[in-house]
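We modelled the chain as a single entity of 237 amino acids. Its sequence is:
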Amino acid sequence: MEWFERVKAIKKEKNVTTDILSERTGIAKGTLNKLLTGQTRNPAYDTIKRIAEALGTSVSYIAYGVDDNSSYGELFEKYSKLDQKGKEAVAKTVDAQLARMENERSAAAAQIGKKRKIFIYDVPVSAGLGSFLDSSPSQSVTLEVNEITDRADYAVRVSGDSMEPRFFDGDIVIVESCGQIPEGKVGIFLYNGESYIKKFGGDRLRSVNPKYKDMVFKEGDDVTCLGLVLGSISKEK
């Protein structure tokens, strides 16, 4: 629906004649007739604003058919001040962004139903007392492809309850290999020869379960980050 068609619909709904609208807005009846028949294709922002105020609605609703949002009005006002070259540049930008969104939607749709496999380590990582992640993975798990699972490099099983209620004993978590992770994120760590799933606390490893104390790093400790935990996919069955 064009903007002037919305104006005519509101006029009809509120029983406002063109004469009344002309009186309320100060816009000549002849000018209004040209506007409301679509003869004037690019009305000034001030014109739209006066019509919106006279009809008790918003510029954004008249211009775009959406509820009031000041940003729409501001954009419309700026756009109305552009010359033809500027308006053509805006149109090209909008077309390019719409094409980008369509390509992204198409790419996402193409991924639906696709699967990939990643290796899972035989030895679980500890959410408790610690275990050594030194085995070579011999099994794999199948993942539905999405933005998160596409980053996963390997999977491990969780053993223990120190990360509950976020991760539970028996959960399988997927991991992105990396040598460091941001503070506050959950990762897989090799700490003095034992592997853990913990939250990185800068100078310590933290559990989610409050009954477990922080593992504070001491001088001489050997701490290696093995990856960022992206999430859990299932419990072992």
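As a brief sanity check on the tokenised model: The chain has a mean pLDDT of 83. The longest helix spans residues 84-111.
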